Amino acid sequence: YWVIKMLLEKNGEQYTAVYEKERILDENEAKRIVEEAKKGPAFVEKVEVKQQNRNPPVPFDLGTLQREAYSAFGYSPKKTLELAQKLYERGLSSYPRTSSQKLPKNLNFRSILQNLAKLPEYKPFAHELLGKEKLKPVEGKKDDPAHPAIYPTGELPKPGELTKDEANLYDLIVRRFLALFMEPAIREIMKVIINSNGHRFILSGARTVKDGWLKVYGKYVKFDEVILPAFKEGEPVKVIQIKREKKKTKPPARYSPAAVIKRMEDLGIGTKATRAQILETLYSRGYIEGKKKIKVTPLGMRVVEALEKNVPDIVSVELTRAFEEKMEEIMAGKADREGVIEESKNQLVKILKVFKEKELDIGKMLLETTGTGATTSKTAAKKAGAVKEPSEEEENAVKKAAKKGERKSLVIGKCPKCGGDLVVRYNRKTGKRFVGCSNWPNCNVTYPLLQRGEIIPTDKTCCDGAPVVKIREKGREYEICVDMNCKDWKKGKK
Q1: What tens digit of pLDDT does each residue of 54-104 get?
Q2: What is the mean pLDDT of residues 352-369?
Q3: 151 in helix, strand or coil?
């Protein structure tokens, strides 16, 4: 797609305005707009200025603290929980394992502020708040019957008592607490609409006109400051350049550890106390890698594929959420503990029975190449925690099943060049699947494969003898020729 930008000048400074239609999909249309807009004249059609109140952030629950600590310091969710636990054990902050965004109603705010005022970095903010007649904090919607939101207790750390990381987290908690009682910040938003020969361009600006709570918490929250000069409607605009730029759509960004925790919260996976540990378990088992941008490893992909195919309930978000909701109901006194345990036990017994029946199939899939350049052996499978370590007898049974399965289920047809079997293989470096001839290296016939869905042979052939396979995914089935030069690929799926 294309974007169109106008470079303009005022008072010796240059500014960039963007065409009102953010994306132009047709290049000829983009060219036409640029040529027409260049003819001018350009003038200010409209100026819009409005003010926005930005309220203070709500009190920390554990998930929000973990995300903020990751953003501010790069701490993993697990590290943040460990640091918060140490602050709690020293009596400096409240219990961290909470999902509440509400402070205790009987909390003595003034006493806490008076103590915080003894620390020079917080003194001016605490004194300002103590001058208020009434102290009313901002609060969020989330509540936790077991524990309130995270707050500083008013106990002060002794000089040199805290490590750098502990001091960072303590500062974050204290400043968040102080911000709760402060006035909203006021932001001025400016929008200038520039008309050039009937084509409109938008020049946007924003600035903070009143700091409010940003005085104390601004080091952890950054707003874009784009300060524009004054514009009057009808005034001419000096245009330096109008040009089009070619852009490409980007895939969704990879999850950061903090983003995974947020997604788990949204989906109801885990609890405030277990989410960080779940993430660490995925790292330790080699299912994921990357500390800032998480990437699923070939082994992780293989484990998910094996479980989705053989025991889909194990990876069911809905089932996991249902278990968590039942636990919450027990804590809230809305469900009978024994009844929930019995119901959950019955469900798990059924799932584990299926898992036991499918152990060899799961083991076979994990013994196949994972894309790391090695086979998922007994040792690797044990480290992954996906299957128990098999006995020698069981291991032989798995290998036998793997060979048998490869001969039957992975053969999709005959090689049109040499008559050998065409089988599904996995690239050792990327883990991606493809079709190759069983007579390799004497025969080099290969075909690419879609990387999703279950592959089912059909005994049909298409272009020059290439086999046709059935793909089954997400409740639907369709047939395709494995030769991507096939005319049907240009028309769509067969």
Answers
A1: 999 999 999 999 999 998 999 988 899 999 999 999 999 999 999 899 999
A2: 80
A3: coil
**Which residue among 1, 75, 95, 170 is the active-site one?**
95
What's the rounded Cα separation, in Å, for the pair 460 and 453? 19
CATH: 2.70.20.10, 2.40.50.100, 3.60.15.10, 3.10.450.350. Which one for 2-56+185-246?
A: 2.70.20.10
> Which long-range contacts (C-beta less than 8 Å, at least 24 apart) are formed by 415-424?
415/439, 415/443, 415/445, 416/445, 416/461, 416/464, 416/465, 416/466, 417/443, 417/445, 418/442, 418/443, 418/445, 422/447, 422/467, 422/482, 424/449, 424/455
pLDDT at 391 > cutoff 70:
no
Residue 443 pLDDT exceeds 50 = yes
Q: Please tell me the predicted confidence (pLDDT) of residue 378.
A: 40
Nearest Cα neighbor of 422 from 434, 414, 430 is 414
Place of tokens 């640029």: 34
Question: Tokens in use for 132?
Answer: 């208020």
- Domain-wise residue ranges, the chain: 2-56+185-246, 410-491
Does residue 95 carry a catalytic annotation? yes
d(CA 141, CA 100): 8
370-389 mean pLDDT: 41
Instruction: Return the pLDDT at 171.
Output: 96
